[in-house]
Amino acid sequence: MTTRMDFLKESIQSLRDQNLFTELPVLSTEQRNRVVMNGKEVIMMCSNNYLGFANHPGLRAAAREAIDCWGFGAGAVRQIAGTMEIHIQLENMLAEYKHTEASLVFVAGIAANRGTIQSLMGEEDAIISDELNHGSIIDGVRLTRSRRMVYPHLDMDGLKKALQETKDARRRLIITDGVFSMDGDIAPLDQIVELAEEHDAMIMVDDAHGDGVLGKDGRGIIDHFGLDGRVDIDMGTMSKAFGSLGGYIAGRRELREYLINSARSFIFTTAHPPCVAAATMEALRMVQDEPEHLKKLWDNTRYFKKAMSDLGFDIGHSQTPITPVMAGESRTAVELSGQLFKEGLFAKPIVFPLVAKDKARVRIIVTAQHTDEDLDEAIAIFERVGKRMRLI
Ligand SMILES: *Cc1c(COP(=O)(O)O)cnc(C)c1O
């Protein structure tokens, strides 16, 4: 045995010492309201399966049919031989849904962010980014040699200042999450658009947690604010509310053409299995034709949040189904999650570096699939554990 890799053991020990080490929890069931997690039956309260589409019979059937028709794998990267008609159908459907000229699908949301930011922005440009933007945006920014300006979370004066300070840049891109995934708050996109137009800067919004959740028919944050046509780059994922997999960029036709020719995370990776495109199209059809899913999601969200704040929990200032149950120290969040699990509820602790060291929490995402009994049981568990731990 050599000692070359011993640093791993030390790094892991150091994470353990800080309560920051995590292991992968393992499901022995499909993703749904009640699951078997690490061998125990629990209410699932932290998936991104907002609309219950991940295990919906409609998506299963669409995927099965596509497997029969197209086989399983795509067999090549998109621009060599991997683009099937069904991939193009999905992109057309996404563009129509998002009210844009075109869209381009990437294998994952992280690939969409990395490839798009990397290919659009060069050394003479400036990127202006909210401090709480998702890690995949930060990765994308790091792949460029652009000047980086990070403004305080949601701070429009900070954004304005950054715009004034980057006047000399060749091009400027403002990037923000639509919904911030740890707190569930929403970017003031109407104000951002005004500032961007005033200063002639491009805007990119990451709608991963807004897709299928906000706006009419779940069309996302741009629809929520009525800003069709005023956001240059609309990024989203098919992997959350749409229950599938993949990321996409919606915008003008030239944006799609440019990315096909220059986004490395698009060029150097194999196309999705065609059944992924089929299932995603079914999800897009369902979110538009069957309003009951979205309605149930919001009814459940309001019910759960009200009960939790009536109990006295600090649930932050979320405007979406994302509900942070604040615990303070990492240790407390880990303890809270562990006790909830013992009582039959699964929600992972969210600790540094995902959030600030003193803002550790358990993040709850209620879905359309939770029944009244699920929610009442979850609330009762939170009450018992919260009292025991003196959080309420
Ligand atoms: C989940 C998420 C992504 C990544 O999407 P994947 O499709 O899971 O790779 C990007 N941005 C935000 C804000 C997200 O929450």
Automatic annotation (TrEMBL):
One Pfam family matching this protein: Aminotran_1_2
Tree of life domain: Archaea
EC number: 2.3.1.47
UniProt record, GO biological process: biotin biosynthetic process
Record keywords: Acyltransferase, Biotin biosynthesis, Pyridoxal phosphate, Transferase
CDD domains membership: KBL_like
Acyltransferase found in the keyword field: yes
Cofactor(s) needed for function: pyridoxal 5'-phosphate
Catalysed reactions, semicolon-separated: 6-carboxyhexanoyl-[ACP] + L-alanine + H(+) = (8S)-8-amino-7-oxononanoate + holo-[ACP] + CO2
Similarity section: Belongs to the class-II pyridoxal-phosphate-dependent aminotransferase family. BioF subfamily.
Name the record gives this protein: 8-amino-7-ketopelargonate synthase
Organism for this UniProt entry: Candidatus Methanoperedens nitratireducens
